[in-house]
Amino acid sequence: MLAALPLLLAAVTAAPPALAATPGATAAAVPVTPVLTPTMGWNSWNKFGCNIDEALIRETADALVASGLARAGYEYVNLDDCWMATTRDVNGDLQSDPVRFPSGIKALADYIHAKGLKIGIYESAGTATCAVAGAYPGSLDHEAADARQFASWDIDLLKYDNCNSDNRPYLDRFKAMGDALKATGRPIVYMLCSWGKEAPWSTYGPASGGGAWRTTEDIGNFWSNGSQSTPMGVVDILDAQVGLEPYSGPNAWNDMDMLEVGNGGLTDTESRAHFSLWSLLNSPLILGNDLRTLDPVTKAILTNPEVLEVDQDWGGSQGRRVRDLGGGLEVWAKPMSDGSVTAVLFNRSAATATITTSAAELGLGGSDTYTLRDLWAGTDSTSTGTVSASVPSHGVVMYRIHWASTTASARPAPTR
Ligand code: GLA
Predict the structure, then answer these.
(1) Model confidence pLDDT, tens digit, residues 286-345
(2) Between the CA of residue 50 and those of 43, 108, 131, what are the distances in Å?
(3) Is this model's pTM higher than 0.70 or not?
(4) By the 8 A CB rule, do 109 and 76 touch?
(5) Whole-angstrom Cα distance, residue 335 to residue 347?
(6) What is the distance in A from the centroid of ligand 1 to the CA of 311?
(7) Atom 11 of ligand 1 has which residue's CA nearest to it?
(8) H helices within 281-397, ranges in order?
């Protein structure tokens, strides 16, 4: 009991987190539907592409519940491209593919809702969606009707893509759908998928009513291709986040794209790094793997409660790179709402290396003792200020660090 006192004091007296960023240009934005924490769920695209049908979606919803992933916080079951018929119906409304979704989307929504989950759908702010060379009708100039259709099906989330834009302005296209969703009166989370084009985070993203926006081209099932061209590796996407910290926050999330954990292209070490960094940067966590064949290692990664807590916690800034030590060794950190800091020691080099930083560099200076919780090992240690670990190649060590001085009330003001 007494041993816990310093920690409690530190929490109670914690000054604003030292890493706290500027509040952000988007802080006052009001999305179509509030998105107070990064969205968690599953999406069909990364694993299945166009090869989807209602049996797969139902089985995925079943697996989400049976596996415990739903209990861990994954809530949305999202259809991506190719759910629809290639033509609109006689009234000009979207309809689901009659062969692959014969029961229709409303029946699927009812099934998913009955399991305590939510359903998301996909469209494009263009004349056609992205897949199959423009075979599927887009929502451009059909926004009101399509939004009404989604609402009538009890849809809870829309991922709105950017293909076949007809070269029309981003704000016009994305705001038209945002306004249309709002007009339905149904709370539909609005996620923009315009691949970071024309800086949605500071321009048309919030202005369109989006609650999140993709920051890059599509993720691929690999570590890195060293470029920003599609598909991008995990590390390539991470590199594109530097500088976007001011634009993230409740109702305004920077979306680093769907997860590739469990899809076989990453080692377990790389998967933990991918998941740690997406969480540290408050990205939506949208699973992209086959949940019907979940292996124990993948499940343990995706349900680590202490890492999920980092993703869902808002302490004033998303994670950021605080130090590039050279040679592929980096320190990333994020302030937590209880005054602690989560740090990711990230080794992108080809060999195991020791990465060292300090509590002061992480914005937690001023104490004589710190507690370090290793979020992957589940172990605790104490330090007088040094934060250091041996980190495997392409891996991370992730610490949550508390100020544990016995003179907590004397904690100095943040230094940065
Ligand atoms: C784009 C999006 C992807 C996916 C596909 C579907 O590439 O960025 O996430 O939705 O379209 O065609």
Answers:
(1) 999 999 999 999 999 999 999 999 999 999 999 999 999 999 999 999 999 999 999 999
(2) 12, 17, 8
(3) yes
(4) no
(5) 21
(6) 23
(7) 130
(8) 296-302, 305-312
